[in-house]
Amino acid sequence: MYTHISSGSVYGVEGRIIAVEVDISSGLPQVNVVGLPDPAVRESIERVRAAVKNCGFAFPMERITVNLAPADLRKEGTAFDLAIAVGILSASNQLRSELFQQVLVLGELSLNGELRAIPGVLAMVEQAKLRGIVSVLLPRENAAEAACIEGMALFAASHLKELGDPANSTQNWDSLRYNPAVFSPHATDSEPASNLHRLDYGDVLGQHHAKRALMIAAVGRHNVLLSGPPGTGKTMLAKRLPGIMPPLDDEEALQVTKIYSAAGKLPGGVPSLMRERPFRSPHHTISAAGLVGGGSIPRPGEVTLAHRGVLFLDEFPEFSRTALEVLRQPMEDREVTIARSRAVFRFPAHFLLAASMNPCPCGFYGHESEDQRCACSEMQISRYRAKISGPLLDRIDMHIEVPRPLTTDGLKSSLSSAQMREIVLGAVERRDARRQGSRPLIDLAGASLRKAVSLSKEAEQMLRLAFDSLGISLRAHDRILKLARTIADIEDAGQVDGQHIAEAIGYRSLDRKLQSL
Fold first, then answer.
1. 349-365 burial by CB neighbour count: b if 16+ within 10 A, else e?
2. How far apart are CA 310 and CA 235, in angstroms?
3. Are strands 224-227 and 398-401 parallel, antiparallel or unpaired?
4. Mean pLDDT, to the nearest integer, of 91-118?
5. Could you tell me if 202 and 416 are in contact, meaning their C-beta atoms sit under 8 angstroms apart?
6. Which of 219, 228, 143 is nearest to 181 (CA)?
7. Are 292 and 156 in contact (CB under 8 A)?
8. How many whole angstroms separate alpha carbon 128 and alpha carbon 16?
9. 27 φ, ψ to 5°?
């Protein structure tokens, strides 16, 4: 007897439909799994055998062949357990085969037949919908996640026994149909704010210049580098940045939710997309693979987990040179490409980089006081700053000084996150109205960028002078243009004037300091 069951797997952050074919024929009792299974898939046979027996079904004592197609893709994980089990039961006439037509079957089995949650359900269900599959059978713990994809009939089970009684010819799944309104009656499209998004810029005393710069970064998604002595609030400023950024739209929310689903980091229980922008802050000991992703079947790294959000690298020069240099490609292309012998994987990585650093190893160069003096030599300072390469620094739009206030007069509370967010949203609204469906400014370069940014004569002269006298690169030239346009949006100016260019150039301070050392 032969049966075909549709299941799925995740490659990168995208779902793939995998056909689970089961054939039972006469011969010595054995089970063979073919189609490039990894050890977890091969071991699934033992879990399936125990679950089938412990649920009152009969495990066929014949030759069983399980094929996972397409056969040239490596299969890993435990998502195929339920599909293999129902394939065997269907081929042995213990479950009705017509129940599984146009149904995606996902889930891990325990030895007693309970169904356990699996990662990556959202991406697999989305792919199933694109392939014309109309129903999904999956563990109850994953049902809320799958409900984010509209137009699919969901059947949520918690045990293999719930799929049917072999002694009952009228098997049906009416009792398994999942209704989000019933199982999560208080769920809304917006989950309560996390502790991170409750952080308020009103807690940061002073640092008015840095707060303005971060509003500019939030509007235009400009990369920022905060530099200053210890204890001036660099980390506090960076951690509050997601709270003033515009909320995720539907497309962005689906992308982010798929990524966290594939990584197994999606909070469960509420049938909603993630609406808060991600904030990732890896330790400086992270490897290059941990930052951009890797593995035999690559998994998303920190840059992908920060997609559409903020990647914060505290103590920027303390990261390894290798880890920092791998950021250059995703910062430019906004995606990560990882090649393996059998496939090429692409991970989205459109993030805002926020980094912080001290001006020298001791932290007090240029910020000395009577009690605190810099003890570093010029060689130590030069070696410390040289850990950040010129090409990487060139990709950071804004270099923001976060100094120690000279007097207590500077320690006055200023803008709160709510006030800053209102300014940001107003600038984003004006930017979108000006753009009128054209490509986002962040995606433009060269002639198309210069055509999109209208400069006054004063602004043109100032930008030309800066390019000739300061030795900035063509990339930095384009980034200054984008930054000036964002500043003009905040000021509600239709044209970029000289003051906007001057402020944008002022944020390119650190590269000139490095060149002077």
1. bbbbbbbbbbbbbbbbb
2. 13
3. parallel
4. 94
5. yes
6. 143
7. no
8. 8
9. 150, -175
* Token couple for 187: 């769920």
Task: Give the span between the Cα atoms of 213 and 397, in whole angstroms.
Answer: 11
Q: What is the DSSP string of 267-299?
A: PPSS-----SPPEE---TT--HHHHHEETTTTE
Q: Are 142 and 8 in contact (CB under 8 A)?
A: no
Residue pair 304/333 in contact (Cβ under 8 Å)? The answer is no
Q: How far apart are CA 242 and CA 278, in angstroms?
A: 7
Tokens of 359: 């001006």
Give the pLDDT of residue 442: 81
Select from 242, 253, 329, 256 the least CA-distant residue to 291: 329
Q: SS3 for 254?
A: helix
Query: Each residue of 202-248: pLDDT tens digit?
Result: 888 888 999 999 999 999 999 999 999 998 889 999 999 999 999 99
The tokens describing 39, both together, are 């050890």
**Token pair in block for residue 367:** 């910020």
The tokens for 207 are 């640092």
Structure tokens at 463: 């930008």
Per-residue pLDDT tens over the stretch 421-461: 999 999 999 988 887 767 888 888 878 888 888 899 999 99
pLDDT (0 to 100) of residue 407: 59
Q: What does the DSSP 8-state code read for residue 72?
A: T
C-alpha gyration radius of the chain: 28
Contact 482, 220 (CB under 8 A): yes
Amino acid, res. 400: I
